[in-house]
Description:
The structure is a homodimer.
Chain A: H1 9-22, E1 31-32, H2 34-41, H3 45-58, E2 61-63, E3 69-71, H4 76-100, H5 104-120, H6 126-147, H7 150-161, H8 178-199, H9 203-226, H10 229-232
Antiparallel strand pairs in A: 1-3, 2-3
Helix pairs in contact in A: 1-3, 4-6, 4-7, 4-8, 4-9, 5-6, 5-8, 6-7, 8-9
The structure holds a DNA duplex.
Amino acid sequence: MKDSRSTNLSLKALTETxxxxxxxxxxxxxxxxEPFLAQRLEISRTPLREALATLAQEGLVERQASGRWQVCxxxxxxxxxxxxxxxxxxxxxxxTAAERGVSQSMLIxxxxxxxxxDALMGLSGPDNFELYVHLNAEFHSWMAAASGxxxxxxxxxxxxxxxxxxxxxxxxxxxxxxxxxxxLLIAQHHHWAIFEAVEAREASRAEALAREHARLARQxxxxxxxxxxxxxxxxxxxxxxxx
Amino acid sequence: MKDSRSTNLSLKALTETxxxxxxxxxxxxxxxxEPFLAQRLEISRTPLREALATLAQEGLVERQASGRWQVCxxxxxxxxxxxxxxxxxxxxxxxTAAERGVSQSMLIxxxxxxxxxDALMGLSGPDNFELYVHLNAEFHSWMAAASGxxxxxxxxxxxxxxxxxxxxxxxxxxxxxxxxxxxLLIAQHHHWAIFEAVEAREASRAEALAREHARLARQxxxxxxxxxxxxxxxxxxxxxxxx
DNA sequence: AATGGTAAAACTGTATACATTTTTGACTAT
DNA sequence: ATAGTCAAAAATGTATACAGTTTTACCATT
Lengths: 243, 243
């Protein structure tokens, strides 16, 4: 079957391999050979190698000295550290946005996103939850964009792609847990506070809030690891965490 | 002619292409074709493509929608932003190191580095200057390592590879300028203060100092741009700065 | 002179071949 | 059984061929 947008087998390789790894198709530390994966994805090695090199930059695979690819493994500490890095960068973004000021239209956009999130609070159901994850991601990328710093946008984006460091990492699959739902309320309170701080040019406050906001993810991670194993089953990337 | 260390044409492609770009062999925004570059480096397109993909992650080249490679161009603001990101990440590293504590042996290592830097203060000559750059880099990578956070080590390393964001970007070629030499003294004072704060577990102070320390680079950048054009001639990567 | 169209040239994306290196696994000696 | 050796199998690194796409350059038209 030929893809109508025929080009970009590299992209196919990238997204499909990423899904496989985050979905737990390999055990952490497992070696993956190019021919094996190429056959599984039904493409040749050339675009696959390009995708693997990208995934190495994302921290999902690494090259052994011999050249073989190996799926990365992470400790809980690594995840915690990654979340702290994200919080720090988002803090810098919020501070910079507050210092430099944000255009009216960007403020309006954000207010709309947050209002839509408000409307979602207390509602349940998978559709609402999916929308929550989407709007949440939108707020976080707004924060980066509001800084106006190209490199900051890029680096925030990069650290969010690290397994389990993104803003919604620990939400998927937990929509029915009361304690997680409570954390959504607190998160939304943070969102508005960050927005107001940026709007009011309160740079220091914006930074501190964004940092603290990221630490909710750390708390959710701890809850998840302390809770029942079944709750962990569907969290993408959690299979890469060892020990 | 066969290379004795035959492997790693990719690495050769990476380092040589990086040198070419930072050395100003291309104008910012210039399009570079793979066959052209492959012929120039006397390798095939396969390892070259891998190297270019890496350089894209480093922010030296980017892919156009059509697939062609294009040398990136930067504004002064981009450089300033990159320096601020580096300072923020190094600040997080210093804070984390202070909070978690650093082993005796790492403290000793750092003290030795700083003592050797002390001995260099006031001395001149190209050899001493080269040594300064080396020891300076050593201190900065110590700071990242002292945090114990793998992802932080990786991200600091990455942002240092951005053109003109590394700790020694604006030093090369300026060894004879009195004002630059004075900034070395201040930098060294910062180094010791950061070290002492980490050793004394003064986390907040360590973070603030590391942030401020990075801003010396911003100051040097401003001096450089305000000064005579000849002073800018030999600064690697400065050819990528536009307007 | 400026614009638009078209064919040739050049380039990118991908597959594949092949040389070299690494891994595997069986076999031998201790 | 354990360790060591060595040949076969498999994997990686690199070059190259080729299809499809983009760019270039030239020519005709306004």
